[in-house]
């Protein structure tokens, strides 16, 4: 009898311990969720945007391009003036003119690189081909890259809660800034200009893209000697467009009509090598390596 009572008491203790354990785990999970929730990326203006933009500005004029003469505080004030007090769909590109006047910049000829739908490869390409210069290498591109912002009519601060998608309205504050920056960048282009397009998608050249709708029309045939198009496809494909197929042909016709001389290549050696650095075991890379070894 005594032994049975002891066994029953031990069984009750085990049940109680298991119950307490489950409660503790549930409480720990709930607490974890509560702690993690605020870390989710907000859909509004990038937190600490002023510190980020000002920090990037000082870094650029001090270390990246110390030859530039710009007042970071003046640039920020002009940026705020363009965005704050406006609805999130009421910031036309013209509102940033004062800001861009505060950051004059010139680029050396033969270095300009324009691109569309090839962002991941661009970063590797410019790291190797250091003589090439993209919009992201300018002061404006360096300061605002990957940031989100919008204002609000009823408040004098940024809207940190919610900003619309770029495609939601014509005068989106982020889209407008990049359109003006892209226009300024293309207008500076001179000498040989390189254009990098993605041949693994339909409409590698898209008239609605930033390149197709802004940069292409802003190039000056009197200053640009050649437009050198490079079409790159993913190692696995699909191989949709090329210099002789698809929308790239439309681009060549537009260039000819505007008086540009142009070239086009489908198999740029440097671009292929960069892709193989990322995927060295890919069959296309092994085949290329073997053929080079035979030579």
Order of strands across the biggest sheet? 1-2-3-4
Strand content: 5-15%
Secondary structural class? alpha/beta
Mean pLDDT, all residues:
85
Instruction: Enumerate the spans where pLDDT stays under 50 for 5 or more consecutive residues.
Output: 1-7, 14-42
Instruction: Give the number of helices.
Output: 11
* Rg, Å, rounded: 27 Å
Helix content estimate = 40-55%
Please write out the topology.
Elements: H1 2-36, H2 49-64, H3 72-83, H4 97-101, E1 113-116, H5 119-128, H6 139-144, H7 173-188, E2 191-198, H8 210-218, E3 224-232, H9 247-257, E4 261-265, H10 269-278, H11 283-294
Parallel strand pairs: 1-2, 2-3, 3-4
Keywords, please?
single chain; about 300 residues; alpha/beta; 4-stranded parallel β-sheet; 11 helices; disordered N terminus
